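Q: How would the structure tokens look for this protein?
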Amino acid sequence: MTRSSDGQPSAAIDPELLAILACPAEHHAPLELDPAGSELLCTQCDRAFPIRDGIPVLLLDEARHRAG
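A: Here is the predicted structure in token form.
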């Protein structure tokens, strides 16, 4: 695990891997790495998927809903 500019832990995701990852929901939208590097954010729905020990957890049951 690497550290972000503010010293917080951040996950290093290979850009080639990130380019092929998609949201597991029915729309299969691309994912983006959040600025802190601790989650993958769906570009279409309000889900945020955790990254644990450098491994994206792309399970709908594990996703956090970002919208209030």
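Confidence is low (pLDDT under 50) at residues 1-9.

The domain at 2-65 is CATH 2.20.25.10 (N-terminal domain of TfIIb).

Upvote if useful.
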